[in-house]
Amino acid sequence: MGLYVSSTRRRALAVAALVGLCALPWLAQAAGQGFYVSFASRVLIFALAASSLNLVLGFGGMVSFGHAAFFGAGAYCAALLAGAGVAAAPLVWLAAFGAAGLLALLIGALSLRTRGVYFIMITLAFAQMAYYLVVSLPGWGGDDGLPLSGRAPLFGIDLKDDTAFYYAVLALLAASLFAFDRLAHARFGRVIQGIRENETRMEALGYPVFAYKLSCFALAGAFAGLAGALLASQSGLASPSLLHWMQSGTLLVMVILGGVGSLYGGVLGAVLLLVAEEVLVEITPHWQIGLGLALLAVVLWAPQGVAGLFARRRGDD
Amino acid sequence: MTERAAPPSSPLLDVCDVGKHFGGVYALNGATLAVEAGEVHALIGPNGAGKTTLIHTLSGALRADAGRIRFAGQEVGGRAMHERAALGLARSYQITNVFARLSVLDNVTLAVQARTRDWGTSFRFWRPFARDTAIVEEARALLERVGLGALAGRRAGNLSHGEQRCLEVALALGTRPRLLLLDEPMAGMGPEESARMVELVERLARQVTLLLVEHDMDAVFRLADRISVLVGGRVIASGLPDEIRADAEVRRAYLGDEA
Prior knowledge:
The complex is a heterodimer of chains A (about 325) and B (about 260). Chain A has about 325 residues and is mainly alpha-helical. Chain A has one domain (about 10-245). Chain A has helices at about 10-30, 35-60, 70-85, 90-110, 115-135, 160-185, 185-195, 200-205, 210-235, 245-260, 265-285, 285-300, 305-310, and strands spanning about 145, 235-240. Chain A has a two-stranded antiparallel sheet with strand order 1-2. In chain A, helix 3 (about 70-85) packs across helix 9 (about 210-235) and helix 7 (about 185-195) crosses helix 8 (about 200-205). Chain B is α/β, with parallel strands linked by helices and about 260 residues long. Chain B folds into two domains: about 1-90 and about 180-260, P-loop containing nucleotide triphosphate hydrolases (Rossmann fold, 3-Layer(aba) Sandwich), CATH 3.40.50; about 100-175, no CATH class. Chain B contains ten helices and ten strands. Chain B is globular. The interface of A and B includes residues 187 and 206 of A.
């Protein structure tokens, strides 16, 4: 995989998708299916979480199996702040972003001393530690999780309205993806992709590789925390299952399905997985067999994921 | 070990009694070496003498167990590889080590971009790299210099072996080193490619101090200003090419049948 370059075509597709998503609540209302707006918010939140994992996995080349820890940290941060009476959404988002980023900085500083399988295992171990810590805290609701009393308003806009909340989520996702696009094309993005390709060579060229990897890991964790805070607001609950290793696995599946190292891979994967779940669960409770087959097909025939199917083949490669 | 006369100014690279062992095996056993600024210093020795281990300990890929390494007046023995590279101590690899999936141009721009003293840090998250035209221009000029100008858009992994060896050197050059450690640049090359690499190294020698590890004795005696001979992890002789050719100990230990 070469260094990432957004083609005009891909940017145009993204803008078209954004316009479509802006029209979605209106379309849902017109079709009398208003409850889908809340579902759509959920999908977009997972799209943000998966995109943040893609930053670590696809651009930084670090196979983190503990991304759920930061997702969950953001959710609990939002729930605790709501419990403390903080009534301003931007403050909650910022706090979740910062808290999850700090946790990622800590976990990353220890985990990034290892590589390969050891890195996978140690990130998994840290995330499970976070999970058991949260479950064991009675003040944080234990197994039941921590409910949120309501959604904090955004500059006077009441986010309890599902459509308003949906637009807030959409705006945050679009802004985050724009930031990721800038990052991928900036010098930092080139360096982390260089590290993905050949870590030793980057070190020999004079790059402090550890510092770059840690920054990437912490930044991705922060964005996962933001997604977690949004999910807690959306569902009205910070559940310990958000930190569970299966959640890390789900996010990984989304990224692999959508396209590792593609800017919109996380979004595509989240949409595919959650919509498939919604549709297929109606047909059969064994829908995950279908998911398994789909994953197998992607890994075998479309290693660049669904996003890779959209990209045109370049001549030389 | 030969006694080194104190040079008028301190050498660019001063390696003193460096030891490195792997378990019970001593790869380096008191290696001492001085590279003066501006020279081409060749390091020769039989297989298993510790040449590549020495390059690894100098570049920081391995830590020496004993001795000290001074570069440009600073003790660097304890420094990480990236810190040494930032000080101007660059290396190429014996086994080609480039960014195989990236374009040739991206390979070299990553090397040029690494020079924080010219461009500042790469912790820039927002400003598009496309605006750093000076970096790309320099990378293109560098590719012209090593004869890869026409291949800038190709995937590095698709280049021929000889072309990849040139790219390997270009990566090291992109960091504008003060001292370049060239680990067998002609490794695995045919005669024609070798001749071109010798020419390239000759041209480089005018711009940068070189420590050259090479098996091809014709190339070594043609390129080197001074030669050090490493045998069994120790430098048994260090001097002008003619002195090395005439050195009885070197002939016995290494050049033997060839000379």
